[in-house]
C-alpha cells in the first residue's frame, strides 16, 4: 500500500490537500480514498470498490472515449476559474458548485455562461437548501443566467425534492447523489416523483458491479462522477462509464484538473478522456508520499474497514 497527498489548486470541499491510499492487485492499481471525516461503516463501501478494482477483470466496454464536464468550485477568483476553464479542452458542460451565497453564485454562473450560450451548465448544491430556498434561488438562476441542464441534490431529503418538483414552474431536472450513496440500502429508496437522473460514483457505491445493479434497479438515466480521486480512482470511474450501454450525459470525471499535480495525466481531447490513452505504467508516485504517521492512520483504517466487510 502507498498513501499519497495530492495538492489542490484551490480549496474544494473544505480541503487543499487530498489524501488517498493505493494498493495493487492482479488487475492493477486500486484506490481507497473516503474523505477523512467519513466513518468506517461508510468507508467500507469504498474499500469494497478498491478490492474489486484490484482483483476483478473489467466489464465489457461500450465505448473507450468518455465525454466529461468541467468542475468549477465555489470560488469567484477570476484567475482560478479562467485557469480551470483553460484545462478543459473542448468541454461543453460545466458543473458549478453553488448554495451558500446567492449573489456570489449568480456571479460565478454568469462567468461560465459568458463562455457561450451552447455551454451546458449544471448546478451542484450538495443538499444545502430548504424547499423555499431552492425555489427562490433556482428562479433567480433561471432569470439571470438562463436554462441549466440539471440541479444536483438541491435539498437533502426525498420529501423535500418531491415538494420542490411539485411547486417549481421552470424546466427542472433533479439529480440525486447523497441520497443514494449515503444510504444504508440504496435499493430500498423510492425515487418516484423526486428524481430524474441518478448520480453514480464508483467508490462510494461499492464498485462497478454494485453501481450497475443500483442503476438497473432504479431505471433512471445516469451520470457518472468522481469522488475527487487521483488518476487511479478516476480510471476506475471511467471504466464504470464505459460499461454503461446508454450514457446520455457528460461525466464528472475530469476533476484531476483541480489538483496542482496528479499521478498521471487524464488528458482531455475534444471534451473527452480516452480509456486507451494510459496504463498502470504511466503512474508517477514520486513526491506525493505522506509522513509515516499518516500512512499508519490509513493502514489502520483499511484494516478496520476490512473487518467490517468480512
Automatic annotation (TrEMBL):
Keyword Thylakoid: no
Domain Mandelate racemase/muconate lactonizing enzyme C-terminal stretches: 77-171
Keyword list, A-Z: Metal-binding
Annotated source species: freshwater metagenome
SMART domains given in the database record: MR_MLE
GO function term, MF aspect, one: metal ion binding
Designated name of the protein: Unannotated protein
Cross-referenced CDD domains: OSBS (cd03320)
TM stretches of this protein: none
Family annotation (Pfam families): Enolase_like_N, MR_MLE_C
Amino acid at each position: 500500500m502507498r498513501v499519497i497527498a495530492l495538492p489542490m489548486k484551490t480549496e474544494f470541499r473544505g480541503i487543499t490537500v487530498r489524501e488517498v491510499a493505493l494498493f495493487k492487485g492482479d488487475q492493477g492499481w486500486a484506490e481507497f480514498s473516503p474523505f477523512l471525516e467519513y466513518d468506517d461503516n461508510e468507508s467500507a463501501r469504498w474499500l469494497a470498490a478498491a478490492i474489486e478494482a484490484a482483483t476483478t477483470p473489467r466489464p465489457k466496454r461500450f465505448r473507450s472515449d468518455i465525454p466529461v464536464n468541467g468542475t468549477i468550485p465555489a470560488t469567484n477568483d477570476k484567475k482560478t476559474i479562467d485557469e480551470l476553464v483553460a484545462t478543459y479542452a473542448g468541454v461543453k458542460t460545466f458543473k458549478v458548485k453553488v448554495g451558500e451565497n446567492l449573489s456570489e453564485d449568480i456571479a460565478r454562473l454568469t462567468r461560465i455562461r459568458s463562455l457561450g450560450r451552447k455551454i451546458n451548465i449544471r448546478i451542484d448544491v450538495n443538499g444545502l437548501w430548504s424547499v423555499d430556498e431552492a425555489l427562490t434561488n433556482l428562479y433567480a438562476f433561471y432569470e439571470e443566467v438562463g436554462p441549466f441542464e440539471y440541479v444536483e441534490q438541491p435539498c437533502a431529503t426525498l420529501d423535500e425534492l418531491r415538494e420542490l418538483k411539485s411547486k417549481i414552474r421552470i424546466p427542472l431536472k433533479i439529480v440525486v447523489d447523497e441520497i443514494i450513496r449515503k444510504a444504508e440500502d440504496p435499493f430500498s429508496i423510492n425515487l418516484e416523483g423526486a428524481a430524474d437522473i441518478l448520480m453514480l460514483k464508483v467508490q462510494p457505491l461499492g464498485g462497478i458491479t454494485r453501481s450497475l445493479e443500483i442503476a438497473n434497479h432504479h431505471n433512471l438515466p445516469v451520470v457518472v462522477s468522481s469522488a475527487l480521486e487521483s488518476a487511479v480512482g478516476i480510471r476506475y470511474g471511467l471504466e464504470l462509464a464505459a460499461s454503461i450501454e446508454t450514457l446520455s450525459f457528460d461525466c464528472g470525471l475530469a476533476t484531476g484538473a483541480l489538483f496542482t499535480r496528479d499521478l498521471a495525466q487524464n488528458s482531455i481531447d475534444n471534451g473527452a478522456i480516452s480509456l486507451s490513452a494510459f496504463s498502470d505504467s504511466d503512474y508517477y508516485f514520486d513526491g506525493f508520499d505522506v509522513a509515516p504517521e499518516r500512512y499508519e492512520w490509513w493502514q489502520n483504517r483499511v484494516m478496520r474497514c476490512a473487518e467490517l466487510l468480512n
